[in-house]
Specification:
Helix content is about 30%, strand content about 25%. The protein is an alpha/beta fold. The chain folds into two domains: about 70 residues, Roll (2,3-Dihydroxybiphenyl 1,2-Dioxygenase, domain 1); about 90 residues, 2,3-Dihydroxybiphenyl 1,2-Dioxygenase, domain 1 (Roll). Helix 4 packs antiparallel against helix 5.
Length: about 160
């Protein structure tokens, strides 16, 4: 079975990003840093490759110039056990220039998209009572950061169609 490793392209921020991500998530650490002089896209830059574990998942970050930018077509999905986890990750990943998005999505200061989602959301959306699940979905669609109490309230008092 092959290993599948996300590979992230940065302009010049690979090491800074890897350091931030490893500080945010438990079971994360820098595994390796490699620098290659005079090998960048314009010939004179230093290319840096950082290999790290993010909550146990191996990830590679590469400084390779400004040609490509992150967009929402790729995101890291972070399933959280508690509202406190949601709040903590949300705060740390939107700090210093990150942006809140709709429905539990955010972009960190490097432009990388994250979905910070409580496990509760998936559980409530899978409820066999379609009215309750729909009410939860409608509530979630009004949120930026997901609020577990508001989800529970929507579940307990479904809106009629």
């Amino acid at each position: 079975m092959p290993n599948i490793t996300p590979h992230l392209w940065f302009d010049k921020e690979a090491e800074e990003a890897a350091t931030l991500y490893c500080s945010v998530f438990p079971k994360s650490r820098i595994l390796d840093r490699r620098r290659f002089e005079n090998t960048g896209p314009r010939g004179s830059e230093t290319v840096t490759i950082v290999t790290f574990e993010l909550a146990g998942q191996r990830v590679i970050a590469l400084n390779a110039g400004p040609q490509f930018k992150f967009d929402e077509a790729f995101s890291f999905f972070v399933e959280c056990e508690t509202q406190e986890e949601v709040d903590d990750y949300w705060e740390k990943l939107t700090a210093d220039g990150g942006e809140e998005g709709p429905c539990g999505w955010l972009k960190d200061k490097f432009g990388l998209s994250w979905q910070i989602i409580p496990k509760l959301l998936g559980e409530l959306l899978q409820d066999e009572d379609e009215a309750r699940a729909n009410s939860v979905m409608q509530a979630m669609l009004q949120m930026k950061k997901i609020d577990c109490d508001a989800l529970r309230q929507a579940y307990e008092q479904p809106v009629s169609a």
